[in-house]
Every structure is written in C-alpha cells, then in structure tokens.
Design brief:
The complex is a heterodimer of chains A (176) and B (213).
Chain A: H1 5-42, H2 47-101, H3 106-116, H4 121-128, H5 132-146, H6 151-160, H7 169-175
Helix pairs in contact in A: 1-2, 3-5, 4-5
Chain B: H1 2-11, H2 19-38, H3 44-66, H4 80-92, H5 103-126, H6 132-143, H7 148-156, H8 160-198, H9 204-207
Classes of the chains: A mainly alpha (176), B mainly alpha (213).
Chain lengths: 176, 213
C-alpha cells in the first residue's frame, strides 16, 4: 500500500510548522508570565500590571486554541489517510471479484491490474519480463473476456460505478 | 480486506508520533543533558534552558489533555500493576501491542514529568523566580561594578528558615536532576529491550517516522 506521498508530506509539513509555531508561542508566553508574576510582586494594582494580565490571558487562550486547532488538523489528516486506504482497498476488492467473474487467468489478472494502473504495453512487458507480443495477446484476451472494445472501455468499466448518476443531463441532451 | 488492516493499525503504537510529542521529547532531552553535563548551575544558559524545559513540559501537559488520541493521558493512564505485567510479558518474550505508550513506558513518562516539575520548581525557588532576562540584567549589573543586586538577594533571605528552605531546594534540585539522568538511562535501555522484543524500530517513530518511497 503506497500512500500518495504528496498528500502525506504536505500534511506532515503543515503539522510540523504548526507545532513549531505552538512551541515558540508557549515559550514566549511562559517567559512573559514569569515577568508578569515579577511585576505582581512589585505592584499588584498598577494599570501596567492589569494590562499585562490581560495580555497574558490572551496569550494563554491563544495557545489553547492553537493546540486544539493542531489536534483537529492531525486528526483530519489521519481520517483522510484512512478513508483513502479504505477506498483503495474497496476498489481493489471490486476489481479482484470482477476479474474472477471474467475467469481471468493469474497472468491475465496481473496484466489487467497493470493496464488499469495506466502502464502501456512496453512497460507491462518490461515489468513482467515478457515479450510485448505476449502482453498484447493477453490484453486482447482480457478485453474479449470482459466484453469491452478496448483499453478505454476496460478502464471505464471500473470508474463508471464511482461516478454515481451516470451521464449528466446536459451532456445527454447535447448527444441527442 | 480493508477493515482488519485499519483495526490492526489502530492497536499498534503510531508509526510516527505527532510533531508536538517529538519536539517536546527531544527539546527536553537535549536541555536536560546540557544542563546536567555542560553548563554551570545558576548561569544564564542554565536558567534559560530551565525555563525552556518548563515551557516544553507545560506544552506537553496541555497536549496530554487537548492533543490527538495517542498523545492524551487517557491513552496511557498510570497503572503500576499493568506496568509490572508488561515487564513480565517482556521477560517471557510475548509482548502485547498498545495503541500509545506501553504501561511500563507510561510509568516512565509520568516519572519523568514529576521529576521535571520538581527540578523546575526548585530551580525557580533557588533563583527567586528570576526570568532569564532578569538574570542577564543582574549579571550585567554585577559585571559593571554595581553589586546592589547581590546585596538585595542576600537581604531577602536573612532568616534561618529561609536559608534552610533554600538549602533543601538545592538538595532536591541536585538529587532529582541526577534521578532524571538515571531515568533517561533506564528509558533508553527500555526502548532497546522493547524494540528487540517487538522486532520493531521504536526510535524512528520518535524521530522522522519511516521513510516512505
């Protein structure tokens, strides 16, 4: 299972940046609070202290909100990752079952998977260590077993169900 | 099948701890080692690192309430009985997976936090709660020949009781600091033993996680 590296690394960078920001914020707040406590001992009722106390409260609230936001971000990223994994697993289950229904041989199944992934004949042949002619023949057999005209229809067979309501009305009218 | 795989993933410790856990972990580790081994007690660097540790500790404790599931205290409640049971499993070689820290590791974390809090509080008491800025200002004043800062300091604790308390704070500070180093050594040993028993790299999740291709 290879997770899409772009999404993962982007999410990682984002949470790392937020965490560093949160750390700097906490550091600043702790120093500031220490300073305010020093002031408190000097003169608790001065306007200076009251102002500083308000700033401190704002800083602490900022940290709490920042913490909460960071947690939400981390959880959201994880949920997306998991949903993606589940969707991937579900799709490959569907493909597996369909290949079985078409009674593809193990070799044809492999070639079919690679074709669905978008590899061309030369690439599939290289990956499987087979001649291009063999792969081409296997693909032709797959298409005939599936009853599709070619590669485009073969791929569309699995995507179709994911697209829901089928052809949009406007497109259908334009076709008539 | 997708379902069992995700269930298995949620029962194991994270393959990568979240950034707050990692930052606070390494920040505190480096600061404690520096303060224990390299710099001089009472120096500006020592006090600054102490305040840094206090800030990181506070952040980690807030994160223990507000953070994601495996960073929260509720994921690893302090339970000495479970910790002993876990150590027993470790001896027999069959270790159960835990979604966060294992029970023994959890006890270690709480011990660390208690010691860090003690060291910080006694340190604050010893410096009279002076922030690094104040320490720097005082040192600069003394360096420039104005010794009034020193006089004020000694004046503030003229009574015997104060001096006794201060002495106690210094003792506690030193003893607990040494205890922290012992805990750190135990912690490293625990990670090594655990990693062997589980046949898994436990250091990578605390650093950068596994490199994905």
């Amino acid at each position: 299972m290879t997770a899409s590296p772009d999404i993962v690394s982007a999410g990682r960078r984002q949470t790392a940046a937020l965490s560093i920001f949160l750390m700097v914020q906490t550091l600043g707040t702790v120093f500031f609070v220490g300073d305010v406590i020093g002031d408190l001992r000097a003169d608790p009722l001065s306007a200076h202290f009251i102002f500083e106390a308000m700033v401190t409260a704002a800083l602490v609230l900022g940290i709490l909100f920042g913490t909460f936001a960071l947690r939400r971000t981390i959880e959201l990223l994880r949920a997306q990752d998991q949903a993606l994994a589940v969707a991937r697993g579900a799709l490959s289950d569907v493909i597996d079952r369909q290949f079985q229904t078409w009674a593809l041989t193990p070799a044809e199944r492999d070639v079919g998977f690679l074709a669905l992934k978008g590899l061309d004949v030369a690439e599939i042949a290289e990956l499987r260590g087979a001649a291009q002619g063999t792969v081409r023949a296997q693909l032709t057999r797959i298409y005939s077993k599936a009853g599709v005209s070619g590669r485009a229809q073969f791929a569309a067979f699995f995507v179709e169900d994911l697209l829901g309501e089928g052809v949009p009305e406007a497109a259908a009218q334009a076709a008539q | 099948m997708a379902t069992p795989r995700t269930l298995a993933a949620s029962a194991a410790p994270p393959s990568l701890w979240d950034p707050v856990v990692r930052l606070t972990h390494w920040g505190i580790a480096v600061s404690v080692l520096l303060n224990a081994a390299l710099d001089e007690g009472g120096s500006l660097l020592h006090v600054s690192l102490g305040w840094l540790v206090m800030a990181l500790l506070l952040l980690r404790l807030v994160w223990g309430v507000l953070g994601p599931a495996e960073a929260r205290f509720s994921a690893f409640p302090p339970n000495p009985v479970a910790a002993l049971r876990h150590l027993g499993q470790l001896v027999s070689g069959r270790v159960r997976e835990h979604p966060s820290h294992n029970p023994a590791g959890a006890m270690m974390a709480y011990a660390f936090w208690a010691c860090l809090a003690l060291v910080t509080v006694t340190g604050l008491y010893m410096t009279g709660g002076a922030t690094p800025m104040q320490v720097a200002a005082e040192k600069a004043a003394v360096a420039s020949g104005d010794w009034s800062a020193l006089i004020k300091e000694s004046e503030g604790e003229s009574s015997d009781e104060d001096r006794g308390l201060r002495h106690t704070a210094e003792e506690v500070h030193e003893v607990v600091a040494n205890l922290l180093l012992i805990l750190a050594a135990l912690h490293v040993a625990g990670v090594l033993v655990e990693a062997r028993a589980m046949r898994r790299n436990l250091v990578a999740p605390m650093v950068l996680g596994h490199r994905r291709k």
